[in-house]
């Protein structure tokens, strides 16, 4: 893929300084860029690299003032960071632009396949399943019986969508994620063993969700485990049966959300957070990494930290006290020795 500086400038509605016909064919960091590269500069910390870079084209902010001559062609825009993000998205879209059905793959005669769909080699599409228009099913992906994948969604290699689960429109699911595996349901028996409780529900993933690699979302015992619109899930997350994640909530890596817990909208859950089952977390909650939520959170828009979690302000105060414990212990020992001497 090759583009001229003029073509890129037109796309970004920017102002060009330098050679309009110079060609770029790759994106790079400004400090590492070579000839034929397109880079950007938005952080003043990296401004010195503008005068030494070998990038053919650099996107900069409108208000940048040059201190000395440069070799690169400049494209001036209101926000270099935002404009470069647009180019990254375009580049990624072009790179992943696949279509057609590769062989060998299996598509059940009863499955419904939309227009302009890509199905990679060794993919499996089960009976009654459907894949809507413009979606991409990468190699070694499994879409079970009666499962549905909406429009313009991407399932990367190794994703498993169990039977009856629903994936909405504009969803991205990264490799080796499992949607709809059985919830952790077992009934204790008189002899001390456990009897499996059949999990007959499903998982519903609404529109505009992105799920990282190696994440597992369990199907409901009955009803649905629900991931609402706009949710972003990191790699290596466990979401248990009948849980519900509110719209536009983000959850970082290695977090675990127990069964039947309801997370409100616009929450931020840090990495390695553990949340017990059958509680609700209010919308707008922010939870510090490695915290443990063991009770319901009713107050909206609050910050929490620690295990068990307390208000973030109190948690930070506690950390200060903890750091002073050795000193406090020494003082207590001194006072005890003084009291003994008085006796």
From TrEMBL:
What span is annotated as the signal peptide, if there is one?
none
The positions flagged as active site in the entry are 241 (proton acceptor)
Group of enzyme by EC: transferase
UniProt KW keywords:
Acyltransferase, Lipid A biosynthesis, Lipid biosynthesis, Lipid metabolism, Repeat, Transferase
Asked if the Swiss-Prot or TrEMBL record annotates the protein with the keyword Repeat, the reply is: yes
Q: Which reaction does it catalyse?
A: a UDP-3-O-[(3R)-3-hydroxyacyl]-alpha-D-glucosamine + a (3R)-hydroxyacyl-[ACP] = a UDP-2-N,3-O-bis[(3R)-3-hydroxyacyl]-alpha-D-glucosamine + holo-[ACP] + H(+)
EC numbers listed for it are 2.3.1.191
**One protein family per Pfam:** Hexapep_2
User: Which molecular function terms from Gene Ontology are attached?
Assistant: N-acyltransferase activity; UDP-3-O-[(3R)-3-hydroxyacyl]-glucosamine N-acyltransferase activity
BP GO annotations: lipid A biosynthetic process
Q: Taking every annotated instance into account, which residue ranges of this chain make up the domain UDP-3-O-[3-hydroxymyristoyl] glucosamine N-acyltransferase non-repeat region?
A: 21-89
The answer to whether the entry has keyword Acyltransferase is yes
GO CC terms of this entry: membrane
Q: In which pathway does it act?
A: Bacterial outer membrane biogenesis; LPS lipid A biosynthesis
Function in brief? Catalyzes the N-acylation of UDP-3-O-acylglucosamine using 3-hydroxyacyl-ACP as the acyl donor. Is involved in the biosynthesis of lipid A, a phosphorylated glycolipid that anchors the lipopolysaccharide to the outer membrane of the cell.
Q: Which family is this protein grouped under?
A: Belongs to the transferase hexapeptide repeat family. LpxD subfamily.
What is its quaternary makeup?
Answer: Homotrimer.
Task: Note the NCBIfam families from the entry.
Answer: lipid_A_lpxD, PRK00892.1
Write the protein's name: UDP-3-O-acylglucosamine N-acyltransferase
From what organism does this protein derive?
A: Pseudopedobacter saltans (strain ATCC 51119 / DSM 12145 / JCM 21818 / CCUG 39354 / LMG 10337 / NBRC 100064 / NCIMB 13643) (Pedobacter saltans)
Give me the gene this protein comes from: lpxD
């Amino acid at each position: 893929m090759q583009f001229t500086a003029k073509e890129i400038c037109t796309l970004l509605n920017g102002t060009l300084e330098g050679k309009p016909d110079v060609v770029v064919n790759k994106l790079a960091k400004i400090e590492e860029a070579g000839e034929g590269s397109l880079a950007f500069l938005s952080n003043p910390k990296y401004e010195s690299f503008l005068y030494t870079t070998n990038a053919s084209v650099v996107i900069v902010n409108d208000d940048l003032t040059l201190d000395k001559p440069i070799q690169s062609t400049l494209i001036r825009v209101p926000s270099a960071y935002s404009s470069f993000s647009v180019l990254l998205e375009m580049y990624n879209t072009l790179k992943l632009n696949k279509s057609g059905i590769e062989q060998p793959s299996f598509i059940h005669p009863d499955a419904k396949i939309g227009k302009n769909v890509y199905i990679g080699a060794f993919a499996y599409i089960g009976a009654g399943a459907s894949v809507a228009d413009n979606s991409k099913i990468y190699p070694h992906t499994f879409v079970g019986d009666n499962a549905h994948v909406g429009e313009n969604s991407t399932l990367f290699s190794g994703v498993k969508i169990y039977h009856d689960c629903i994936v909405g429109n504009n969803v991205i699911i990264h490799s080796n994620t499992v949607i709809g595996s059985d919830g952790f349901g077992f009934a204790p028996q008189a002899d001390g063993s456990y009897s499996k409780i059949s999990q007959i529900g499903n998982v519903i993933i609404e529109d505009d969700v992105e799920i990282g690699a190696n994440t597992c979302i369990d199907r409901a015992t009955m009803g649905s485990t629900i991931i609402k619109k706009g949710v972003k899930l990191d790699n290596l997350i466990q979401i248990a049966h009948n849980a519900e994640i509110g719209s536009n909530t983000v959850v970082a890596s290695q977090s675990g959300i127990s069964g039947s817990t309801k997370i409100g909208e616009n929450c931020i859950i840090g990495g390695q957070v553990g949340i017990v089952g059958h509680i609700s977390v209010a919308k707008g909650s922010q939870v510090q990494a490695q915290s443990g939520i063991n009770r319901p959170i009713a107050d909206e828009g609050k910050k929490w930290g620690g295990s068990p979690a307390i208000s973030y302000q109190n948690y930070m105060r506690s950390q200060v006290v903890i750091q002073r414990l050795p000193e406090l212990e020494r003082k207590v020992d001194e006072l005890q020795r003084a009291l003994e001497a008085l006796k």
